[in-house]
Design brief:
Length: about 280
């Protein structure tokens, strides 16, 4: 779905009897924050992906980006998994691949986020369960089944932008585009976006461990989702050429890893790798 490109020089149901191989990720109790997730201003992965994709002054995403909608839906699944609401079904004796395993409900406790809770209700109400790839398609509205259009998350970017306005990170303006007026959301709190960019840049430049299982889960997730949403260039675009090349090469090494192998290594990261596998297949 998306590819890493290098710029030119300065160009613009738990069971007590589970076998060890069936262990699923444990993201803590529902609603319990992980140490790595503690921030003064907590943003969801969906909000962070949108923030990375927004043009700071213009307040909208690139008109040419046809990946971010699906990327935001993948972010919802990862966020729910990290918060302990959903998981992948256990690996069976046949060692089913990540793309064949269904998304199962762990807890229907509300998250407090409207979009996440809407996604959670859809997953809870669906029988039989669906795979990660199918859920991304359903939440995006890319289905030919009229009976499943009800699962589409609508107006996601606008709803996320309004949430970021409420958090004081974006503002709301009207811009005229010759034939129509459009509501835009320029960045008003540059510090928050710079914090996010710095976090991701440092993760591959200063704190690079070359072992995904040693990375903070939300950082790993955000790199995967930035790639899936085709906004990775926005993350590293401000770097000097030499650092840009290092950052892109290391990220490419990360994204080229086998999701099946890495999911088996890193506890609590199966949904992240399943989302990457889904986008790799698309």
């Amino acid at each position: 779905m998306t590819t890493l490109t290098h710029r030119g020089r300065r160009a613009e149901g738990r069971g007590a009897d589970r076998r060890p191989e069936e262990e699923e990720e444990e993201a803590g109790e529902p609603g319990q924050e992980q140490p790595e997730d503690s921030k003064d201003m907590r943003l969801t992965l969906m909000e962070e992906v949108l923030l990375l994709g927004l043009k700071d002054k213009e307040g909208y995403t690139s008109f040419w980006n046809d990946c971010i909608s699906a990327g935001l839906r993948g972010a919802a699944l990862v966020e729910l998994a990290l918060r302990g609401r959903i998981r992948l079904e256990p690996r069976a004796a046949r060692r089913r691949s990540l793309l064949d395993r269904k998304v199962l409900l762990k807890s229907d406790a509300p998250t407090g986020d409207v979009l996440l809770d809407e996604t959670l209700r859809h997953i809870k109400a669906t029988e039989p369960a669906e795979t990660v790839q199918t859920w991304i398609e359903l939440l995006t509205g890319e289905t030919w089944n009229p009976f499943k259009l009800q699962y589409q998350l609508r107006n996601v970017r606008e709803r996320l932008a309004k949430a970021l306005v409420e958090k004081g990170i974006l503002t709301t303006e009207k811009q005229n585009f010759l034939l129509f007026d459009m509501t835009t959301h320029p960045v008003s709190n540059a510090n928050e976006k710079q914090r996010l960019l710095k976090k991701l840049q440092e993760s591959v430049l200063e704190r690079w461990v070359n072992e995904p299982q040693r990375m903070e889960r939300r950082t790993l997730a955000l790199l995967v989702l930035a790639h899936a949403s085709d906004v990775l260039e926005n993350v590293f675009g401000s770097l000097a050429d030499d650092k840009y090349d290092v950052a892109m090469n290391r990220t490419k090494d990360l994204l080229d890893m086998d999701p099946e192998v890495e999911a088996a290594k890193g506890k609590g990261t199966e949904m992240i790798w399943a989302v990457l596998a889904a986008f790799n297949k698309s």
